[in-house]
Amino acid sequence: MVLEKINELNDIKEIPKEEYSVLADEIRTFLIQKISEQGGHLASNLGVVELTMALHLALDLPKDKIIFDVGHQSYTHKILTGRKDYFDTLRDYGGMSGFPKRRESECDPFETGHSSTSISAGLGMVAANEITGNDSTIVSVIGDGALTGGMAFEALNNAASINRNFIIILNDNNMSISENVGGMSSYLTSMRAGEFYNDMKNGVVDTLNRIPVIGDKLVDKIRKTKSSIKQLVIPGMLFEDMGITYLGPVDGHNISAMVKIIKEAKKLDHPVIIHMMTQKGKGYLPAEKHPSAFHGVGPFHIETGQPVAKKTKSTWTDIFSRAIVSIAEDDDTIVAITAAMPDGTGLKKFKQKYPERFFDVGIAEGHAVTFAAGLAAAGMKPYFAVYSSFLQRGYDQILHDVCIQDLPVVFAVDRAGLVGNDGETHQGIFDLSYLSNIPNMNIMAPKNKYELFDMIEFSKDFNHPLAIRYPRGTAFSGLKEWKTPIVFGKSEWIYQECDIALVAVGSMVETAIKVRDMLKEKEYHVSVINARFIRPLDEEIMIELNDHHSLIVTMEENVLNGGYGERVNRFVRELKLDMDVVQIAVPNQYVEHGNVDLLKKEIGLDADSIVRKIENRLKL
Fold it and tell me: Which H or E run contains 585?
């Protein structure tokens, strides 16, 4: 096997050219096997095998730097930099990350978990090289989906001002996670269709060069007017108009062609973008047919592509999907927005049933928020379904465009709390903190799947900014008998006793019930309250608790700083209530990748750890 020869950085440079295609096939087989066992990002990695090989052949790593955008397409890069044997620990706690990690290898110069960042980061490195005199080559690899992000355009605009080599690889597979949308997608499609331009250009140059004496002069003359010719042949010439040399399109699976053009690009003294066309999911038929479904996967059967774990219960996302379709049936003002993730956020059914009221804005969360604000200001009722981690990217727009105007935008915040194997960049553990501090923002969290449906129903007639946050995975179906009507700003009693009060937010209600059962076995008296509303805080129930409880235990899947527990603690202190407060929350730190149950145990969010903390406090 050729892959057996790849054990350390730059081993690929010892592989004969005639074995490149064999190595590419073996890498794909290796990735399919490992991801089928561990889970991970499959389709995107299968699409960039040859592209990554070409980069390693054309560049001098680790001196030269490759920044992947988004970083989940870096698996082949990890193989070629000596990490092949770590794939059995891919995305496990303490194991190899599914994204570039600087602590893993000096060949991972920048960590990228969100999209549209690589050009900005690359420009920063180019500027640093200019100051320090470093002559390393900086390459940013960005997908065509990530290129829809506004940050990428800001960086492209800035790139035109530098007079130093900087290579941008545009990995064009016509996909982000779901199929690309918008003007940039149409523009790239026109360039794909315009491949004849490059063939024509090369043919003209070759013909003119054969003319004795004057041939070279004619070629130079034509090159001086190349912009005019390109404007006639390729619509827009967006990149050239911005001052960035455009090369391509290039077959992203032709290693020799890519190596040649990368080496040519290295000779330029200014930014250059190389347009490479790849196929997402290449080499594995189920992923080729359904690249969106194979973007991020759990363990699956290689023969069929079907997941190992059969889905038998509804997820939180499924419940949201059914709820928004239901409320939209009788209300034509309800519209739904996604940032390139209709499948992941549960809006696929809404799109199918109400296509005229569905909007996919591409990977552009900031734009999505202000777009929603515009819809709301014009009398519509917009729902923006988005992962907690990605909503961070629209913070200014939430504050400035939605909340200052007190517009009725609903944020369906999916993947709130710990999400597991994708690690630090994807954990949804900051949303309560960054949303709670914004005036006019209201925040809810359901205890179970029935309450999520009820909260979506409640939201349709609520005329102010509202965030409804819910976790990843199977929706909790317990406590069905507790179905108190939702009243704005009011919490819900689950068990009403005395002494100890467990006040839990959303997903932590299930844990609170386990904690209560364990404490009851030790003969403690324990109340359980479903917070329901994180903002506004139910101050009345806190005052009521003071009559019969000496200890409040707040429980949330959010960092301690700025979270629900801090707000409760502040209120208790300000009113000088005679209660102690224990805050159970995620420590103020980034949480690495791993199984969610294991992570909870490590950071003290599991029932056993919480019981120990409570008993330790009672002993003081």
Answer: strand 580-586
Q: Catalytic pick from 84, 91, 280, 472?
A: 280
What pairs with residue 307 in β-bridges?
300
Whether the CB-CB separation of 586 and 521 falls below 8 Å is answered with no
What per-residue confidence (pLDDT) applies to 215?
A: 60
User: By the 8 A CB rule, do 519 and 611 touch?
Assistant: yes
Summarised one tens digit per residue, pLDDT across range 208-227 is: 566 666 666 655 655 544 44
Span 379-406, average pLDDT:
97
pTM of this structure: 0.86
- Please say if 365 is a catalytic residue: yes
User: Is the Cβ–Cβ distance between 223 and 215 less than 8 Å?
Assistant: no
Strand blocks (E) in 254-372 = 271-277, 334-338, 358-360
- Assess contact for 69 and 118: CB atoms under 8 A: yes
Amino acid identity of 444?
M
State the pLDDT confidence band at 150, using cuts at 50, 70 and 90: confident
Check if 102 is active-site. no
Catalytic residue among 26, 50, 365, 492: 365
Look up residue 475 and give its DSSP letter.
Answer: P
Which of 450, 383, 436 lies closest to 413 in space, CA to CA? Answer: 383
The Cα 370–Cα 380 span in angstroms is 13
Q: Roughly what angle, to the nearest 10 degrees, separates helices 49-58 and 20-38? A: 120
Tokens of 167: 């290579």
Phi and psi, residue 24, nearest 5°: -60, -45
pLDDT of residue 229: 43
> Is 381 noted as a catalytic residue in this protein?
no
Q: Are 222 and 171 in contact (CB under 8 A)?
A: no
Instruction: Give the amino acid at 387.
Output: Y
pLDDT digits (tens, 9 = 90+) for 547-603: 999 999 999 999 999 999 999 999 999 999 999 999 999 999 999 999 999 999 999
Q: Letter for the amino acid at 120?
A: S
Q: Which residue has the tokens 């009507």?
A: 485
Q: How far apart are CA 394 and CA 401, in angstroms?
A: 10
Cβ neighbours, 10 Å, residue 454: 18
CA dist list (Å): 269 to 61, 264, 516? 20, 11, 67
Are the C-beta atoms of 215 and 209 separated by less than 8 Å? yes
* DSSP code, position 284: -
| Catalytically annotated residue among 393, 469, 516, 532 | 393
Rounded to whole angstroms, the Cα distance separating 178 from 199 reads: 31
